[in-house]
Every structure is written in C-alpha cells, then in structure tokens.
Task: inverse folding
C-alpha cells in the first residue's frame, strides 16, 4: 500500500525532472511547451499520490481539487502560449 | 463595511466581465471600479489599524477547505499602494490607446490583473497563492502582448514559458508541504513547520519558483525585454506591482512561516544575489539606449535592494531593530512602486510626443514637456534614494541595519548602487536639458501627465516626510492571526 | 514667543513658496516673476532680522517633525546658523537683482529663478538644521537644486560641467550619509549642541569616531572644495555668472565649510576633536589647499577659472580656522565665512559684467578696462585687495584673527608661513589684473562690445550689486568693532563654543 503511493510519487518526481531538463534544454516554443506540460503532469501525479489512502479508504479530496484547478491553469497557459506563437508566426510572414 | 475585503476583489472582477461585454463604456467602467476598489482597500487598512489583522472565510467554510481572505499590516499597505498605482495608470490608460480594438482588449485584461493582484495580497494559503500568481502571470503576459509587435510577442512568450516553469516549481514545493503537514494554510503552517529534509526541499522549491517570478539576478533575464516592450501603463504595473508581489510571497514564507527552516547561509546567499543585482542592474541601466529598457533594468537593481534586507532581518534580534529593518524594506518597496510607475507613465508620454524613447535623442524635451521631465526627475530622486523620498529613509535604515548586524559589507554595495543610479538618472536629465528639436509643440499641464505627477509626489514628499505612522503600524499589526 | 518658534519654518517658506510659484509663471510675465522674487527675498530679509534679534537675546526656537522612529527633522536657530542664514539671505537679494539684469531676454527664466529660489531654500534649511539627519537632507537637496542651474545653458560644456559637479557632490553625499548613519548606530540621534555632544559619550571607541570623522569630512570636503576633492569647482564655472556667484559665495562651497564647522564644534566638540587628533589632520589638508589653490590660480588666464581656484584657496581659511584650537582662530574662521562671501561675490559679479558688456573672458583681454567700466572695476579692485588682506578691507580682519589664533594655540610656526605665502600668492595673481585694468592702455576694440545704453557703463541691475557688495566688504573691515558686525557676531559664537 505504502509502496504504491511511493511508486506514484517517484514516478511524479521523475516526470517532473524529465520535463524540467527538457524545458531548460529547448528554446523552440513547441518542444518547450510540451516539456512544461510533462513537468506539470509530474507535479499533478505527486498530488494524486499524496491523496491516495489505500483501496478501501476515501482519497483525500483536497489534493484532488488542487490538481483539477492546476490542470485548468496549465491548459489555459498552454493555449495562450500557442496563440502567441501563432501571432508571432503571422507577424514574421508579413 | 466589513465586507470591503470581498469587494476589493469582486468589484474589479465584475468590472472585467462587464467591460468585456460592454466595451464601448469600458474605460468608464474601469475607472469607476478601480476607484471603488481603491476606496475598499483604504477601508481595509483602517480596519487593520483599528482592530488588528483579520480573516474572512468565504462562504463560511472552515479553514483548509474554503477560501479564506486575510489582511494584516503588510498586505493591506501593499494593497493600497497597488490600488493607487493601478488607479493612476487607469486614468493614464484611458487616453493612451488610440486603436479601438486594442482598447477593447485592454480593459477586461487590465481589470483581471487587478483581481489577481488583490486576491494574491489577501490570500492566506499556499494554493490560493499559486492560483492568483498564475492568474496574475497570464493577464500580465496577455497585456504585454497587446503591443503586438515582434519584440513584444517574443518577450511575452519568453515571459510565459519561464513564468510557467516558475509556478510549476512552486507548485511542486506546495505538494511537498501538503505531504508533510496536511495543510496549506499559512497561519497553521507557521505553528507546525519544523526543520526537516522534507520542509527544506519544499521550501527550496517554493523559493526557487518565486525567485524566477521576482526576477532576482541571475533569473532576471526575462524581465527587461518584457517590461520594455509592453504598453506604458502595463509596464508601470508590471515593474511596480507584478514583480513585487512575488517578493511579497517570498517575504511571507521566509519571515513568517518557514523561519525554523531558514539558515543564515541561505539568507546570506540571497542577499549576495541581491547585491549583485543592484550593481549589475544599475550598470545595465546605465548602458541602456532606450528609456523603458533603462527603467526595466533599474527594476532589476531595485529588487536587489529588497533582497539585501533578508540576511539583515534574519540576523537582527527580535525587537525594534528587526521591526525597523522590516518596515524599511516595505518602505523601499512602496517607494519603488510609486516611483517606477511614475517613471514608466512619463516614458509613455515622451514616447507618444516624440514618437520614440531613445535616450540620446531626448534633446529639447525639457523645454517641450517640462512637467514630464520634472516627474522623471522626481521619480529619479526616489530611485537613487535621495531626500526627500521614502527610499532615502529605506536606505538610511538599510545602512544602519547592516552596521547593527555587523554585516558592513552591504554598505559599499549600497553606495555603489546609489552612485550608479545617480549616473543613469542624470544621464537622462542631461540629454533632456540639451537643446534639440524633439517636439515642436509645448505641452504644459497635459491631462496625461497628472497621474504620473501624483505617483511621483507620493514616492517623494508623502513617503519621505509623512510615513512616520507606518513604523508603528507595521510593528503592531503584522502577521496573520493563528489558524 | 510663538512667532519665534515658527520663524525657521517661515524663513524656509519665504523662498520655497515664491520659488514654486515662479515655475508656473509664463516666460513673458517679467513683472510678475520679478515681484515674486523680490517679495520672497525682502520677506526673508525681514524675518531674518527678527531672528537675529531673537538669537541675540537667547530665545530658543526649535521645531521638530518626526519622520521615522529616531529620525526627526529639526529646525533650530542658534548663533552659528544665524551667520549663515544672514549671509545667504543678503547675498540672495543682491544676486537676484543681478540675475534679473543678467538674464534679461534670455530663455527659460522661470525655470532658472524657480531653481534659484529652491537653492536658497536648501541653503537656509541647511543653516537652520538642528541635527545631522536634517543637515544631510538639505545638503542633498542643495545638490539637486543647483544641478539645473549649472546645466542651465544646455550647451554640451554646461551639461558636462553639471555632470562633473553632480558626480563629485553626490559621491561625497553618499560618504557623508554613511558617516552620519554610522554615528547614529553607535550614538543614537544627535542634535547639534554648542561645545559638542560626543565628548560626553565616553564609551565610544575613539578609532570608530576617527573613521566617522573621515567619512564626514570627505563628504563635506567635496562641497568645500578641499584638495583633492576640488576638481568640480573649476569645471562648474561654465554656469552663468549669477550661478557662479551662488556656488562660490552664497550656497554650495559655503555649505561644505559650514558643515565642517558644525561637525567639529557642535557634534564632536572642538576640544574633543583635538584630543582625538583630528584637528591637525584637518588643518594640514586646509593649509595645503590654501597654498595649492593659490598656486594654481597664478597660471590661469581665464578670469573665472582664476577666481575659481582663488575660491578653493580662500574657503580653506574657514577650515583652517576651525582646525586651530582656540577662540581667536574660531573667530577668524567663522568671520571669513562672511567676508569671503561678500568679496568673492563681488569678483564674480564684476567678471560677469566684463563678459556681458565687452565679451572679456580672459585676464589678457582686460587692458584698460578700468576706464571703460570704472564702477565695476573699482568694485573688483576693492574685493581683490580685500582677498589679499590689505587693511581696512574685510579680508584683513579674517587673516589677522587667524594669525593671532595660531599664535595663541602655539601653531604659529606653520600657520603664519602659510598665511604669508598665501597672501603673497594672492597678490601675485590679483595685482597684475588690477595693473592691466587701470594702467595699461585700452585696446582698440573689445572682443564683443555691446552698444552702450542708458547713463551708466552698464544697466543698473548689473552695476549696483557689485558696488553694494564691495561697499559691504569695506564696511565689514572698517567697522569690525561695531555691534552686530560679522566680527562681533563671530566673537559671540566663539564665547558660546568654548
């Protein structure tokens, strides 16, 4: 039981680290944005793992609520970055 | 009356929604809602002054589940400063945008920025801080992109990706805090946090995220391009407020919540980075070719001063000396907020009348725009830290705190920073006084010059001579009530 | 004595408010601007008269305004501040009249007179400052208010001169600030007090105090143009003549010298400063500067540059008087604050008149100018002779008391030679000018002569100010023993300081 929680936590930390490394390495918008999303997924996974309290017990609702909010934020930020990128491309073509 | 803490967030939020649908009256709506929010922020300060820090549970949920709003001396003072800067910039912005499309896009975003600022300053738990920080970042980036040229868009994209990284790192730290303590409420945390590897990592992650947001050297690289290419009223808010609230969160975490985790070494490290930021930022400001870029680098330097206070506050014993250093830090932040926004608004006036903001070609502006150059000089005085300004008192206490704490090595940094600041401010004035045909028409008492004048007077005369009450207020009413 | 309590504030406001109003006056409204100027100057003069009366009768006036815990703005009138306030008020009136004549028809007059008034406000505030904190505030404000005046012409040289001025003075200001804050952290807030404050605080480490003194003297020495901090003064002579008068005689240089007097007498206490070994140090710098300035003045052909180096030398007499222990030297130093002011302002007024009327900027162009402009040249001659120390002009009194003071303190061995050497050098750079002006035949054509109009050699507003200040210099020497003369007042201060 504990080991499951630990496994997910470690996986979350791993994703976070992979995403972080890629974010710092890439300068193009799209790869960097993907990397940031991987990074974010790692953090959300950590939250989910924290909430987990065994198969029988109810999960802690607070971290799950936080993840929902976090996903909304991440989606809007990604959308905005893409919109900005498109606008920049359009300006380059002019 | 007691609901002012809700209204200060709700009014701009409603304003933002209404101005989105009713864009023809957007500037009127924005001015009205910001004036109302300013009034609400003043009521909040009065409440804190009369009955101490207080807490408001939204929808009467218990702490930990619902959203709780809190106000104490630090947050309420910063709230009033932020609403004053916003109100002045709003008046300025009402004549700034000539393009109808941009104007229609500006107001809803601008009011959303206000919502984020106010909600952030009144948040009492880590997750709400994260959400408001994101909301703030997103609206700031969208506003930066309003300039709609390549430089601005590139700056906005860089700002966005680095900002997103900063918030994710911060969020990872928040997750660890929840793992360790099962709560995110700051007041509760301040009673239970202990030094442990977990809290150290969590604290380190949150600090790293906030350092990115507050643009401390060497993480400042995204700031100059973004602040220099945004529209003038937006630059004013970015430099004066958006960067500063990240420092505010940092200060809260460092001084109020995580003080058991804090080591003198880490505080010293941040102080050192602050010292480098002072020198480096001022030096870059001296090299800058454009007025707004100079102002942006000057922000990097001014943020550095705030970080020099950290090792001093940590080192000084509890009591009047520590309180004085803490209040002086706040005074520096307030002065810089008013002065830098005044500077950016004036730079905007110059840009509109001359068609550019190249420093070397400012000749003749002292003749054509006397009031604007006067405002630049006044805010420059505040940036240097000369009397009469709030930052003179701030620097006075920075020097005396350094000597009291036995950390004399900050003193030469402060001296060098002041001399460099003198050089970059008076370089502008030297060019402005030189003869030249920058503009033909002489502008005296233009409507767009008044908001900047008021901000500059707040930074100099009001904070310089009238801030005596601040010291008692902060030492008596700071800190959140226990959860 | 309610009115007396608010007197320092009223004196400040009497130039601050007209100054702020002048900024708003339209460029063409000559009459309105002049009336504001003269109204402010005359009101201030009246108020200062009242203050002299009050201080003479030892009425205490003290205004305090809390700025932060432990930091108060204090305005306080004592005998020493009255000297400086009176000097700057009288000379401000004269200089304003001169400037009105000098800047006739030139652009940006509202800006000029606005800053001019702010500058005097800062000077008076500095004179009335009751503690180091207030002093530092006005000291920095003075720098800020004079910068636009030095840069006034807007030419590249003017902007460059102003930048050099600013670099020196604000750099010095930072050091002064550090010294003052340091003193605050070890000794708490310090109000100026006759006979000093620090001598009573015996627990303080003498070496820390010596370092603090060094910081403060460097900070003040920049404005007082002590060697090697004098470099800005010759550069700042690009400013218009009334501004030079202000820099050299009324405000800036004097502010530095006045600050040195304050620190030595009213913070450290002169006897304690001597016990710490600080006075010989200050005296050595002052003595060197006196000789150095005079030697440099010898080789300058540009008239205003020669006068600038002469100022460097002459102002150090004040520091020298401060550095010699004993009441007679104190009297010599303080009285020279006034005497140097009236004499040097005369010289700069005259130099301005030569440049304005005939286009003369260099000593070598002055042949026979005495016949063309007799009144101006007569005033110049009186002031120059006074600088050399010829009796009965004011400068003689200063040198006499400095010499006596040195003998009294047993320092005659090195002070008297300095005084003699300096006087010989003064003669060597002033007498040739007088010889040229009066005895050499006039050249056929002046460099840039303006057509003569009116009954005088030059318009009245330009001619009378130097004549008046020259007469003052003569009277201060002739009637040195009269009540309320500068000498008598300096004696009063000296008796209160020892």
Result:
């Amino acid at each position: 039981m504990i080991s499951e929680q630990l496994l997910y936590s470690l996986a979350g930390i791993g994703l976070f680290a992979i995403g972080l490394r890629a974010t710092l390495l890439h300068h193009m918008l799209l790869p960097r944005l993907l990397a940031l999303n991987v990074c974010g997924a790692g953090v959300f996974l950590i939250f989910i793992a924290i909430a987990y309290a065994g198969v029988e017990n109810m999960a802690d609702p607070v971290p799950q609520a936080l993840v929902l909010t976090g996903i909304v934020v991440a989606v809007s930020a990604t959308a905005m970055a893409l919109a900005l990128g498109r606008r920049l491309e359009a300006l380059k073509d002019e | 009356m007691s609901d002012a803490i809700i209204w200060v967030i709700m009014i701009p939020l409603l304003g933002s929604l209404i101005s989105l649908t009713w864009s023809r009256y957007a500037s009127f709506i924005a001015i009205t809602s910001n004036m109302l929010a300013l009034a609400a922020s003043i009521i909040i300060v009065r409440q804190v002054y009369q009955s101490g820090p207080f807490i408001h549970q939204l929808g009467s949920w218990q702490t930990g589940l619902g959203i709780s709003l809190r106000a104490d001396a630090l947050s309420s003072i910063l709230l009033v400063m932020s609403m004053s800067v916003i109100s002045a910039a709003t008046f300025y912005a009402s004549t700034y945008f000539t393009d109808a499309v941009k104007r229609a896009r500006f107001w809803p975003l601008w009011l959303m920025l206000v919502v984020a600022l106010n909600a952030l300053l009144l948040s009492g738990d880590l997750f709400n801080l994260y959400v408001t920080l994101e909301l703030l970042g997103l609206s700031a980036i969208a506003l930066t992109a309003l300039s709609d040229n390549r430089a601005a868009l590139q700056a906005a994209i860089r700002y966005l990706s680095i900002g997103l990284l900063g918030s994710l790192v911060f969020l990872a730290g928040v997750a660890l805090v929840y793992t360790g303590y099962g709560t995110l409420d700051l007041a509760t945390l301040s009673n239970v946090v202990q030094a442990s590897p977990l809290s150290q990592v969590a604290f380190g992650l949150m600090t790293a995220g906030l350092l990115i947001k507050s643009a401390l050297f060497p993480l400042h690289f995204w700031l100059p391009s973004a602040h220099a290419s945004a529209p003038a009223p937006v630059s004013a808010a970015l430099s004066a407020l958006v960067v500063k609230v990240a420092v505010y969160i940092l200060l809260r975490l460092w001084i109020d919540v995580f003080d058991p985790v804090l080591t003198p070494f880490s505080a010293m490290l941040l102080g050192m980075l602050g010292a480098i930021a002072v020198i480096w930022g001022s030096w870059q400001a001296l090299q800058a070719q454009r007025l707004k870029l100079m102002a942006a680098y000057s922000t990097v330097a001014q943020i550095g001063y705030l970080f020099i206070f950290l090792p001093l506050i940590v080192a000084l014993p509890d009591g009047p000396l520590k309180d004085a250093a803490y209040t002086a830090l706040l005074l520096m932040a307030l002065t810089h907020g008013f002065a830098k926004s005044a500077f950016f608004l004036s730079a905007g006036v110059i840009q509109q009348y001359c068609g550019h903001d190249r420093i070397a070609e400012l000749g003749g502006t002292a003749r054509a725009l006397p009031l604007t150059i006067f405002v630049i000089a006044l805010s420059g005085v505040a940036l240097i830290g000369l009397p009469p300004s709030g930052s003179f008192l701030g620097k006075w206490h920075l020097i005396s705190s350094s000597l009291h704490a036995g950390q004399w090595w900050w003193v030469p940094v402060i001296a060098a920073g002041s001399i460099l600041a003198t050089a970059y401010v008076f370089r502008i004035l030297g060019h402005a006084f030189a003869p030249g045909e920058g503009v033909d028409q002489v502008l005296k008492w233009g409507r767009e010059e008044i908001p900047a004048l008021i901000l500059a007077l707040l930074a100099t005369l009001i904070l310089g001579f009238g801030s005596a009450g601040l010291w008692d207020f902060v030492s008596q009413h700071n800190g959140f009530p226990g959860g | 004595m309610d009115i007396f309590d608010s007197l320092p504030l009223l004196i400040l406001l009497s130039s601050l408010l007209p100054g702020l109003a002048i900024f708003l006056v339209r460029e063409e409204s000559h009459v309105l601007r002049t009336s504001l100027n003269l109204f402010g100057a005359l009101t201030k003069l009246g108020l200062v008269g009242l203050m002299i009366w009050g201080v003479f009768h030892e009425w205490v006036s003290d205004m305090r305004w809390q700025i932060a815990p432990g930091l108060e703005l204090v305005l306080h009138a004592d005998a020493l501040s009255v000297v400086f306030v009176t000097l700057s008020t009288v000379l401000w009136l004269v200089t304003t009249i001169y400037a009105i004549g000098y800047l006739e028809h030139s652009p940006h007059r509202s800006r000029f007179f606005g800053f001019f008034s702010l500058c005097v406000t800062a000077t008076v505030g500095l004179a009335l400052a009751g503690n180091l904190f207030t002093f530092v505030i006005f000291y920095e404000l003075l720098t800020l208010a004079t910068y636009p005046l030095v840069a006034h012409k807007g030419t590249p040289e003017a902007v460059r001169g102003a930048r050099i001025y600013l670099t020196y003075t604000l750099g010095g200001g930072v050091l002064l600030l550090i010294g003052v804050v340091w003193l605050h952290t070890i000794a708490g807030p310090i109000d100026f007090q006759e006979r000093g404050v620090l001598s009573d605080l015996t627990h303080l480490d003498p070496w820390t105090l010596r370092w603090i003194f060094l910081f403060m003297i460097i900070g003040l020495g920049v404005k007082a143009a002590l060697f090697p901090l004098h470099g800005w003064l010759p550069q700042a002579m690009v400013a218009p003549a009334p501004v030079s008068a202000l820099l050299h005689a009324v405000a800036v240089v004097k502010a530095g010298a006045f600050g040195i007097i304050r620190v030595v007498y009213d913070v450290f206490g002169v006897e304690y400063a001597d016990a710490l070994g600080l006075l010989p140090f200050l005296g050595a710098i002052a003595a060197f500067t006196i000789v150095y300035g005079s030697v440099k003045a010898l080789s300058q052909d540009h008239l205003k540059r020669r006068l600038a180096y002469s100022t460097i030398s002459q102002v150090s007499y004040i520091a020298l008087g401060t550095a010699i222990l004993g009441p007679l030297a104190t009297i010599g130093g303080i009285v020279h604050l006034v005497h140097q002011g009236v004499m040097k302002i005369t010289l700069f007024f005259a130099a301005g008149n030569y440049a304005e009327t005939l286009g003369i900027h260099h000593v070598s162009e002055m042949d026979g100018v005495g016949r063309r402009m007799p009144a101006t040249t007569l005033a110049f001659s009186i002031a120059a002779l006074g600088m050399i120390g010829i009796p009965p002009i004011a400068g003689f009194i200063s040198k006499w008391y400095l010499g006596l003071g040195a003998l009294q303190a047993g320092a005659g061995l090195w002070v008297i030679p300095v005084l003699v050497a300096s006087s010989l050098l003064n003669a060597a750079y002033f007498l040739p000018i007088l010889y040229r002006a009066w005895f050499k035949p006039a050249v056929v054509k002046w460099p840039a002569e303006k057509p003569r109009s009116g009954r005088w050699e030059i318009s009245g507003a330009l001619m009378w100010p130097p004549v008046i200040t020259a007469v003052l210099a003569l009277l201060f020497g002739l009637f040195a023993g009269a009540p309320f003369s500068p000498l008598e007042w300096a004696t009063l201060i000296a008796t209160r300081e020892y």
About this structure: Chain C has a mean pLDDT of 87. The first strand of chain C starts at residue 62 and ends at 68. Chains C and A do not touch (no CB pair under 8 Å).
